[in-house]
Write a structure and sequence with these properties.
heterodimer, A: alpha/beta, 5-stranded parallel beta sheet, 17 helices, B: alpha/beta, Aconitase, domain 4, 7-stranded mixed beta sheet, 8 helices
């Protein structure tokens, strides 16, 4: 057999029907993650057609997007942003009960952001196909799964048939040589990759992240990397599984144990791309050359080093790109050529499916320890499990003593549909994934960065390079 | 879904690149459990000021664009989140086709499920459309062509199956459910 890539192996193993010129492939889905925002209309469609969920045991639900991150009151009631949000969450409870889907509801010990919870439970495994009505499903590619976001109609398709109609995407190898230097994280790496590829550069492709710098990343960091693949327009991002992956998964509730675990690991070891496997495109990057990154504009491709200057739109050769950069600067209220470090900020957000895992909170706490924040600062664990672990390590105390808020798990300020928003005109250094206009609140201005950079900016009250603080300077 | 063969309309032109789904419909409007009535929230933060008053300078608020069913937008339209609320809002508003030089993957998939035709043309054809807002165009799915303001025609690629579904009003779920035996076999074989 010709050498195959990781993607090709996973794709081939899930074809119920191969694609033809006339019809797309019928692709089998191993794991379907469900949340409250993109599922209600899909369940309504099932009811309207008298259909059930074909494989409830392959379906796993939680609530995260429209849920409050302030604790419930003494009466047990949650402070929802509005009655509509509460109704949406109730609808998910009802749908899961009616269709026999496992749900981790608000306040339960495994609840969390869907892309944090799935891996924690060991539900996401190498070689699987994973989908969710959420574009950041790409996160699960960190385990060597083919994981991608779908719309609500497709959520209905998977609920009813456990399959999707898909055309085979192309592949793009992203080879990262060298070693990330101190204070430079997977978030900085992925922002650099997106800056290079552009926000549409990965369209139609599945990315595979390769090379020594990727091998050296922890699972948390690999999830951050894969998570933002969609911000380059890619369907998915993948990292081949290795011992780091297997060690992280061992003992989790949904992974096999004993002889079945050994058999699974043996199977997973055959997943990495074969020597000589061909990709449709390739790009290479040197991790050693990277500095902490931050965005200055209104799409995630508009990133620069935190030591850099806001680019001048006049330098753009194409008229459309120039207009887009000018519009971004107007919205952001930044000047061409200004140093981005030192730009005053009013809000800092640490959390989200990009950077809401334990390592991210440790990174933020490392910077905040013994210091005071100058901004409104929210630190939001990605899940109940992350929160519990962080509290056992005393991170909540570090956060509170610095003057920051320690919240309940959820998407929070990444999406701003749950009561956690920034005000019009405010600047927010955010560890989330999107700096689109109004993403964190109408008129709000988002600068995407790592947890280190976000925490350092909270301490400075302005965009700051975290490295001096990390080095104790 | 109603079969679609030809769409004839004047265009409304939104020349921005990378129009993301958060602009098409901001997240605060996603708390609904229905698909209905989202057209009023289409492009909400560009269309209305903070008091909810329509901004007269925004193209969709201008009298000349009322009733236009074809949106011409900049490169990489529909990037960002997977929210199907984006095509629901466009369709509810009355848009039936989006023309650009590229359309984001998830948005394209979502659009096709809702009878919203994504039309990807080359830069030259795109330029002709951008420079003639309000011009009449004719999108023909049979010949996979769009007739441009100068009378010339540009072809556009569209997946054969997606085109078949659009032209015959076939919904994909019906097709998937007809594969039940093959899915059973696949599950037994693993």
């Amino acid at each position: 057999m010709a050498p195959r890539t990781l993607f090709e192996k996973v794709w081939d193993a899930h074809q119920v029907q191969a694609e033809t010129a006339d019809t797309p492939a019928v692709l089998y889905i191993d794991l379907h993650l469900v949340h409250e925002v993109t599922s209600p209309q899909a369940f309504s469609e099932l009811r309207a057609r008298g259909l059930g969920v074909r494989r409830p045991e392959r379906t796993l639900a939680t609530m995260d997007h429209s849920t409050p991150t302030l604790p419930s009151g003494a009466d047990g009631r949650w402070p929802f942003a509005d009655p509509q949000a509460a109704a949406q969450v109730q609808r998910l409870e009802q749908n899961c009960a009616d269709f026999g889907v496992e749900l981790h509801p608000l306040g339960s010990p495994r609840q969390g952001i869907v892309h944090v919870m799935g891996p924690e439970l060991g539900a996401t495994q190498p070689g699987m196909t994973v989908v969710c009505g959420d574009s950041h499903t790409a996160t699960h590619g960190a385990f060597g799964a083919l994981a991608f976001g779908i719309g609500t109609s497709e959520v209905g398709h998977v609920l009813a048939s456990q399959c999707l109609l898909q055309r085979r995407p192309r592949t793009l190898a992203v080879k990262v040589d060298g070693t990330l230097r101190g204070g430079v994280t997977a978030k900085d790496l992925v922002l650099a990759i997106i800056a290079r590829l552009g926000v549409g550069g990965g369209t139609g492709h599945v990315l595979e992240y390769l090379g020594p710098a990727v091998r050296a990343l922890s699972m948390e960091a690999r999830m951050t990397l894969c998570n933002m693949s969609i911000e380059a327009g890619a369907r998915a991002g993948m990292v081949a599984p290795d011992d780091t992956t297997f060690q992280w998964l061992a003992g989790r509730s949904r992974v096999p144990s004993g002889a079945a675990w050994d058999a699974a690991v043996a199977r997973w070891r055959s997943l990495p791309s074969d020597p000589g496997a061909r990709y449709d495109r390739e790009m290479a990057l040197d991790a050693s050359a990277l500095e902490p990154m931050i965005t200055w504009g209104t799409n995630p491709g508009q990133g620069i080093a935190v030591t850099g200057r806001v680019p001048d739109p006049a330098a753009e050769k194409e008229a459309a790109a120039r207009a887009s950069a000018e519009a971004a600067l107007r919205y952001m209220g930044l000047r061409p050529g200004q140093a981005i470090a030192g730009q005053p900020v009013q809000v800092v957000f640490v959390g989200s499916c990009t950077n809401g895992r334990i390592e991210d909170l440790r990174a933020a706490a490392q910077v905040l320890r013994g210091r005071k924040v100058q901004t409104r600062t929210l630190v939001v664990p990605g899940s109940m499990a992350v929160k519990k672990l962080a509290e056992a390590e005393g991170l909540d105390r570090v956060v509170r003593e610095a003057g920051a808020e320690w919240r309940e798990p959820g998407c929070s300020m990444c999406i701003g549909m749950n009561g956690d928003v920034i005000a019009a005109g405010q600047y927010c250094v955010s560890t989330s994934n999107r700096n689109f206009e109004g993403r964190q609140g109408q008129g709000g201005r988002t600068l995407l960065a790592s947890p280190y950079t976000a925490a350092a900016s909270a301490v400075a009250g302005a965009v700051a390079d975290p490295r001096p603080l990390l080095e104790g300077r | 879904m109603n079969p679609i063969r030809v769409i004839e309309s004047r265009t409304v032109v939104l020349p921005r690149e990378n129009v993301d789904t958060d602009q098409i419909i901001p997240a605060r409007f996603l708390k609904t459990t229905s698909k209905e009535g989202l057209g009023r929230s289409l492009f909400a933060d560009w269309r209305y000021d903070s008091a909810g008053t329509p901004r007269p300078e925004f193209v969709l608020n201008q009298p000349a664009t009322q009733g236009c069913q074809v949106l011409v937008a900049g490169d990489n339209f529909g990037c960002g989140s997977s929210r199907e609320h984006a095509p629901w809002a466009l369709v509810d508003f009355g848009i039936r086709a989006v023309i650009s030089t590229s359309v984001a993957d998830i948005f394209r998939n979502n659009a096709l499920k809702n009878g919203l035709v994504p039309v990807v043309v080359d830069a030259a054809a795109h330029q002709k459309l951008l420079s003639a807002p309000g011009a009449p165009v004719r999108i023909d799915l049979e010949s996979r062509t769009v007739t441009l303001p100068d009378g010339s025609r540009a072809s556009f690629p569209i997946d054969g199956f997606a085109r078949y579904c659009l032209m015959n009003g076939v919904d994909e779920l019906g097709f998937l459910l007809s594969q039940g035996e093959a899915i059973d076999r696949f599950e037994r074989s693993r």
